[in-house]
Every structure is written in structure tokens, then in C-alpha cells.
Amino acid sequence: MSFSAEIRQAADPVFEAIYNHPFVQGIARGDLQSEQLVHYVKQDFEYLNAFMRIYGTAISKCSRREDMDMFNQQISFVLNSEVHPHNNFCHVAGVPYEQLQGYPVAPSAHNYIRHMLTAAQEGDLGDILAVLLPCPWTYWEIGKRLMEDVKPDVSHPFYDWIDFYGNRTDTITSRFCTRLDEIAAASTPAHRERMKQHFILSCQFEYMFWDMAYTLEDWPVQLEVTSV
Ligand SMILES: Cc1ncc(CO)c(N)n1
């Protein structure tokens, strides 16, 4: 079994829990509250900013041009394409996208970002691929399953969101897996174990991110401070 197949199997209960999470099932039913969509977009805007910075760290650890190109393409994808699913949520919530940018990061998003930053700072290319992979992989699977289960038509409020993640031949997940498998094959058992743990923790944080949006999670005590 390839390394990517092994870690996907180890994380399978988390993938299942994510698909069954009320936010994801709320996308399926089209019955999420505006506040939940707004909270998601505010947090995901900041999360994707952090994600692009980590791609920058990844590039700083690349020696091959092909790897640099892969991360470069991914930064463009986040900047130019991943605004479409956000716009779908904003449209349904009835709030302009521009009003949902620059907010403080909520606890679970904060912890997820710090987890990725630490792995990226301390690790090598394999650690970075492992910690980032659940982001494209869980969304790709959510999109595919929603496409099959809901079979949405254009009248579904989240048709664009489901179509965006579900109707892609997901080159990024497979490119990350291929490269991660190459690195894992040349790694020590201890390094493989560390990469597996990075991957599994990011899957857990993906679940927590949905839960944060669903429950409108915030810091326990409200202060006037706006920066983290
Ligand atoms: C938290 C999170 N995970 C994954 C994706 C998909 O890129 C996203 N936009 N946000």
C-alpha cells in the first residue's frame, strides 16, 4: 500500500465524521443559517491567507523546479479560483464578500493554522505536504460525495460550492500524494510516522473547522482587541 493510501485509511473515521458533520449536511440540505455561512467565510478567508504563506515556506524548502511550480500554481488557485465557493456562501448569506475580510481568527482556526505553521517551520518538504494535504483531500471527497448523494441542479443554493469542489479532476490531491509517496519511500520510519501524525491532526482540525463555523465558535471572553 502506498504511504498516502495508508494515512488515508488511518484517517478514515475522521473523513466519515467530516462528511456527516451538520455543517456539511447543511450544505447538502441547503439549510444553513446566514450567521454560520458568514462565520465560515470570515474564518476561511484568514485560513487561506495563512495557507498561501505556508506555500511560501514550502517553496523556500524546494530544490526542484517542478515542486516550486506545483506550489506556485496552488497559490494562484487560492487567489483566483477559491474565491468562487466563498462568493456562493456570501450570496446565500446576503453579505458582500469584502465585509467578511480581516476579522480575528477564532480558536479552532487559530490552532489549525499554528499546527500547519509549526510543521512547516520545523519540517522538510514531506512534513509540509503531509500537513497541507487534508485541506484539498477532504474537500475533494466532500464535493464528490455531495455530487453523488444530492445530485444538485442549479436551483440548489449551494450548487456552485458543490460543483466547484465535486466536479474537479483533483490534480492537486493526486500531485501532493504522488510527491509525498516519493518522499516517504526514501524516508526513515520515524519520519514517516511524523508525517502520518501531521496528516491525521490536520484531518482532526478540518473537522473542528466545520464545527467552529456551525457553532459560531469564538474566544471565551470578548475583548476590544482585534489582532491575534
Ligand atoms: C479549512 C479549509 N480546509 C480546506 C479548504 C479547501 O481548500 C478550505 N477552503 N478551508
TrEMBL record:
Q: What class of enzyme is it?
A: hydrolase
Tell me where in this chain the Thiaminase-2/PQQC domain is found.
Answer: 9-215
Molecular function (GO) terms for this protein are:
thiaminase activity
Q: Name one Pfam family in it.
A: TENA_THI-4
Functional pathway: Cofactor biosynthesis; thiamine diphosphate biosynthesis
Reaction catalyzed? thiamine + H2O = 5-(2-hydroxyethyl)-4-methylthiazole + 4-amino-5-hydroxymethyl-2-methylpyrimidine + H(+); 4-amino-5-aminomethyl-2-methylpyrimidine + H2O = 4-amino-5-hydroxymethyl-2-methylpyrimidine + NH4(+)
Family matches, as CDD domains: TenA_C_SaTenA-like
According to the record's subunit comment, the protein's assembly and interactions are:
Homotetramer.
Function statement: Catalyzes an amino-pyrimidine hydrolysis reaction at the C5' of the pyrimidine moiety of thiamine compounds, a reaction that is part of a thiamine salvage pathway.
Q: What is this protein called?
A: Aminopyrimidine aminohydrolase
Q: What is the lineage of its organism?
A: Bacteria, Bacillati, Bacillota, Bacilli, Bacillales
